[in-house]
Design goal:
309 residues; five-stranded mixed beta sheet; 25% strand
């Protein structure tokens, strides 16, 4: 696909997504609200997207206010009418759950609508990450040149629709993205970076090339059989733990947006828990197995090895 076609598809997909989200909102407003609880988190300012989160203050909304906030969140694809100080690189999270009464026909329609919305979200991500033909470092500029203010993470993230679980509890999750990489693949990545000839602030082009060359030598100097892993920390994120007594099963879900819960009547409303403030200093692990010792080799890439020279 040409870059021109990708831009055209980008605009078309976002327009369809906005229409589908508006139709979903109209349908949800026809249903009886049984219970709602959402948790507002602090917004992220520009330049602070990668700052570590050690504390998060939570503000809880319930009932009709929670529903109103949830509907606005589902449709929030752009930062328009928001402060220029806020980041478009950081996702806007609103964990929680909205419980609505729906009969069989209404439930079937909503499942169809949410499935269609999630397909459009996947299509949008495909256009940006694959069909644009752009490397990851150039995608942000491409998207915001053609769709100024788009919050791509919000646009990508699927909506979750549940059918009357027994309870929904909320909490926080800390994790790492861990990926094994081969020496050849890592050297190829570093060589590509070196040949690109770019300058990365605050270094000059020459200084940056020296740094990458040193990284290449560090990888080459590892003993045979040394393992390489990318271990990238992910910011603490809100999660939902959904319990279904019929299946005797608990499912843990990422919860960047309020869960939509459909109930046949008021007697089937799940128990909704609270999301407490996050404090990294107070986190305790029930069981933390001893991890294989790793040594940081290239900090900027979060690249570790199990053996050094």
């Amino acid at each position: 696909m040409s870059r021109y076609d990708a831009v055209d598809q980008l605009h078309h997909c976002v327009a369809e997504l906005e229409q589908a989200l508006a139709a979903l909102q109209q349908q949800l407003l026809t249903l009886r609200l049984l219970a709602a609880r959402v948790f507002e988190l602090p917004e992220v300012e520009k330049g602070k997207e990668h700052d570590p989160l050690t504390q998060v203050a939570v503000e809880q909304l319930t009932g009709s206010r929670a529903l109103e906030r949830a509907l606005a969140h589902y449709r929030r694809l752009f930062m328009q009418h928001q402060s220029e100080k806020l980041s478009t690189k950081a996702a806007v999270r609103l964990p929680g759950a909205v419980c609505l009464e729906a009969d069989g026909a209404q439930s079937a329609l909503l499942h169809q609508q949410v499935a269609g919305i999630n397909q459009l979200k996947q299509r949008l991500e495909q256009i940006i990450t694959v069909e644009s033909g752009l490397p990851s470092e150039e995608r942000f500029e491409f998207v915001h040149r053609h769709l100024r203010g788009l919050i791509t993470l919000n646009a990508y993230r699927s909506l979750t629709l549940l059918d009357a679980p027994d309870s929904v509890r909320f909490g926080w999750a800390n994790k790492h993205i861990i990926k094994n990489v081969s020496r050849d693949d890592m050297l190829a990545t570093l060589q590509k970076s070196l040949k690109a000839g770019r300058a990365v602030a605050p270094w000059t082009r020459e200084q940056w090339a020296e740094r990458v060359a040193d990284e290449i030598e560090a990888v080459k100097s590892l003993p045979d059989g040394a393992a390489l892993k990318i271990k990238r920390p992910v910011k603490v994120q809100p999660i939902a733990r959904v319990w279904n007594s019929r299946d005797q099963k608990q499912t843990q879900l990422a919860c960047p947006s309020p869960l939509l819960v459909l109930c046949p009547d008021a007697s089937s409303v799940p128990k909704l828990g609270e999301l407490l403030n996050y404090d990294a200093a107070g986190v305790t692990h029930r069981y933390k197995p001893d991890a294989q010792p790793l040594f940081l080799l290239i900090p900027r890439l979060h690249l570790y090895t199990d053996r050094l020279v």
